[in-house]
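pasting for ref. prot 1 ->
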Amino acid sequence: MMASSRRVGAACVFQLVSVVLTLCLWADPIKGDSHKLCSRCPGDLRNGTAVFNYCHANSTLVADGRCCVQKQARQEVVGLDLWNCSITKMEELLKVASTLVVLDLSDNPFENISFVFRGFTRLQEVVLPVTIDCPEGAAAWRSITLEMNKRICQGQKNTCNGTTEPSNLCPEYSVCEPDGPGLFQCSCIKGQHGYKCLRQDGFPMWMFLGIVGAGTMVITVFLWVTQRRKVKTM
């Protein structure tokens, strides 16, 4: 009787765990700020748009609301269609700056949004209202086209490889790294930090102890030999 009850209890626990796992697998994996962006405006990706085409051209991507996300890491938003969302400020876009590749901001009442693209190092296509210039202008993009009421900026250039080399502005012991369209930052090389990367990482404790230890050993041996000679002479 007791064994039968235990088997029934174990079966119930197993079924409960199975239900919980199933719910977790079917639950929307996009959470937090990224999910809010995907549902920022009603509707799904529009057929034939830049974000739609990019999403459907890659089998590792999937559409989710106004977003295009990675199938295996759906919190990673690579495409975002905010067409006609009545957006005036784009600070919330900074939440997906490091992953975004294609962005559609057409038909929105913007003023100037160039500043917001710092950190968008993977961005390759931006669709803007025709009245808005591409971030940092023609020097930051390989192609700029006008299409009806849209301005399309494509192919973000590597700012650190331009004709006017910004790396010359970086101090010694640092390297130039792209930081968005037309933007760059100077990062200290390994082992350097601080103002103008002039400080070295940490105090070389092991080297110091090695030198002190070796010096102590030499002095000890020297004194021991000297004392033995004195004893022999006496």
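and prot 2 ->
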Amino acid sequence: MRESAQTASRLLTATDVLVARPARPEDAEQIALLSAPFVEQGLLVARPLAELAERSQGFVVACEGERMVGCAGVAPSGSSLLVYNLCIAVDWQGRGIGRHLVGIAQTIGRELGYGSLLALTQYSGEWFGKLGFSEVPASEIRDEWRALFRPGRRSSLYQLRFTSEPSETEALPCADSSRPRSDTVDNLRVETHA
């Protein structure tokens, strides 16, 4: 876990201070704006603003000041937790933000008792593989996961099974259920409110 924090500090410059926090309904517009270039490229599924507002409490966002530079949604899928709509502003890519957002999703999934983290992607399978995910063969896709697939998209399903020990990608903590908490990991501060 400390190794991931050290990697993040190398990727973020001394002047970069990012806050990762749960999204709020009023963040839906910024989530839509951040997602738009990826939707246009066919990398993300288009979601109406009303849907993003409704699902906002299932998102974690990374912000530099007032600017949202990354987001990821999480939603239950049977005994697994799905991470979706993961996107990072183009000028912030390559700094470890996506890895940290996936780490937060891992921590949430583990704390809520899910057995694994899922990701559905057309083009980012190699990236998820570097985080420990494995592609789920079509013959092993459970019925509860089939509903995740959108017609016409040639997506693959990736799974990261939780073990008894947190993996090194789980770099960021989540709050316990009793109180708000703010943690600092080098230049990336995490705020969570249970």
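The longest strand covers residues 67-77.
Strands lie at 18-22, 59-64, 67-77, 80-88, 116-121, 134-135, 156-161, 181-185, 188-192.
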